Amino acid sequence: MFPVEKIRKDFPILSRKVNGHPLVYFDNAATSQTPQVVIDSIVDYYSNYNANIHRGVHALSQEATDAYEQARQKIQKHFNAKKTHEIIFASGTTHAINLVANGFSSLLKKGDELIVSALEHHSNIVPWQMLCERTGAILKVIPMNHDGELMMDAYDNLLTEKTKLVFCNHVSNALGTVNPIEYIIKKAHLVGAAVLIDGAQACPHIKPDVQTLDVDFYVASGHKLCGPTGVGMLYGKEEWLNKLPPYQGGGEMIAEVTFEKTTYADLPHKFEAGTPNIAGGIAFGVALDYMNGIGFNQIASYEDELLQYATKQLMTIDGLKIYGTSKEKTAVISFNVGDIHPYDIGTILDKLGIAVRTGHHCAQPIMDFFKIPGTIRASFSFYNTKQEIDVFMEGLKRAVLMLS
Amino acid sequence: MSIKDIQNEIIDEFSMFDDWMQRYEYMIDLGKSLPLIDDQYKTEDNIIKGCQSKVWVHADMIDDKVVFTADSDAIITKGIIAILIRAFSNQRPKDIIEADTDFIDEIGLKEHLSPTRANGLVSMIKQLKMYAIAYQTQLQ
Fold it and tell me: Cβ of A343 and B54 within 8 Å?
C-alpha cells in the first residue's frame, strides 16, 4: 500500500487550517507543496555555505559550487541526459522556452514554419508568436478533438520541409491529457524539424528519458516537482545548444571579454549569465531525490487511483461535465457544473478550506474551443488522500446547493 | 437616503447573520434584485477589468444623479456589484466620489477588498467612482 500518511508528515503545510478548516490542497498543477527536506536544504545553504559560485577561491564558494553542480548532475541523471552540460538552469519553464525561442531568431528565415499544439499553456504559445514576428516564420496549430486529444492525422499533414520547429506540452495543464510525444518527435525528425517538449505538467507524474524520447529540447519547473519557485531547467541536445546563440549577456557566460570582442563560455555556462538561484538549484536537486525516493511508478499509480476515485464521485453530480476525457491523462480534473460560474464554486470551496483553481488556466484557446469562460480544476498529488476527495465532494455539493 | 445611511442599513442587515454561509446566501439573494444593465450596454467596453468573472456596468445621469445598472455572469460577483450599486446609485456624483467603502469590511467581505483578489471588487469601486468623476466634470 502507498504510505500516504507517512508522506503527509513530510509536508508541514498540510497540517495548517484555512478559513477554520483543515487545508485540502487540490491546486497541485499550479504548484506543488514543499517537503521539509527541501525547506531544510534552503535553510542549510543560507545558514552554512552561502557564497557566489564558480569564481571564488575560498572554501564557501567551493562548497556552494560543488553543491550546485551536484544538483545539475542529479537533474541530468533524473532526465537521463547524455551529458551534464546539456542541462541548463533556468528560472522556470517559461524562462527556458524563451531562451530557446530567442536562440532560434538567428536560425529562422521568412516563410519557415513552426508547429504548436492546440493544448498549450500561454507560455508555450506567446514566445513563439514573438519569434514569428521577429523572423517572418509562420505558426501552425495541431487541432484537438472533443476529448481533448491532439489529432495526429492533422499533424502529419502540417509537417513539410518548411517545418523547422515543433513544440508541444507533454501533459496539458488545463485538461491533463498526456500527449503522444514519441510520435510527434519521430515525425518531426523525419522532416528535419527540432522538437521542444514542455514538461512542466508531466514531470510531477512521469519520469521522462530524454535519450529514449530523442527529444531536442525538454523543459521543466522545480516548483511543480516539490522544489522551490524560481528554478527550472532546460535540457538541450549538445549540438542544438552549440548552435543557439546566448540568450543574455553578463558575467559567468563569457570566456574572454575585451571592448572589441567577447568570446562565450562553453556549455552550460554560455546560457547562465549572472548569479543564478543557487539555493533554488540545490533544493531542486534535493526535491528530485525526495520524489525518486518515493518512486515515480508508485506516484503515478497512486495518483491514478485518486483520479479514478474522484472522477467516479464527480460523475454522480447532476449536470457536471468533465473537460478532457482522453484515455491517457494525469491526475487533473477540469469541470463545470451546469451553468454555474467556476469562480462562484471556487469561492465557496475556498471558504471551506479547499484550494482548487478556477478560470482559463492560462490556456484561453482551449476554453474557446469548448466555448466556456473557464473551468474548475482539481489537480491531485501523491500526498493527497481519498478522504480529502470526500471532503471536496461534500464541499462541492454544498456549493452547488447554494449557487443553484 | 445618503450613501452613509444606505451603507449603515446594509451593515444592519448583514449583522443578523452569524456565519459566512448565511452572509453569502444573502449576498446571492441581493444579486437577484440588481438593476440589470440593458443588453445594448453589455459590450466589451463596459466589462470591468480585473475580474475572473464578467462584470458589466453602465451609468446614466438622471436629473443630477448617477444611476447605475450592471450584470455579471457569476452570482457571487453579481451580489457584490448589487451591494455596491445599492449604496452608490441615485446619488450625486460629488457624493459618490467622496464616499468611503469601509462598510464592505463591516459586512464580513473584507477578504474581497484585497487588490490582488481575482474578483475585482476594488476595480468595481474604482469604475463606479470613475463614472461619477466623468459626470462631475461635465457638470462643471
Answer: no
- Is residue A30 within 8 A of residue A363, CB to CB? The reply is no
Catalytic residue list contains A362: yes
Q: Give A291-302 pLDDT, tens digit per residue.
A: 999 999 999 999
Question: What's the ipTM?
Answer: 0.88
Interface test with A, best of B18, B25, B44, B53 (most A CBs within 10 A): B53
Where exactly are the structural domains of chain B?
3-139
pLDDT digits (tens, 9 = 90+) for A38-80: 999 999 999 999 999 988 889 999 999 999 999 999 999 999 9
SS3 content of chain B, % helix, strand, coil (to 5): 55, 15, 30
Mean pLDDT of chain A: 95
Which chain A residue has its CA at the smallest distance from B54's CA? A373
Report CB contact under 8 Å: A373, B24.
no
Q: What is the DSSP string of A176-198?
A: -BBP-HHHHHHHHHHTT-EEEEE
Q: Provide the CATH number for the domain formed by B3-139 in this structure.
A: 3.90.1010.10
| Chain A touched by B73 (CB under 8 Å) | yes
Domains and CATH numbers, chain A: 4-27+296-403 (3.90.1150.10), 39-292 (3.40.640.10)
The residues facing B58 across adjacent strands are B69
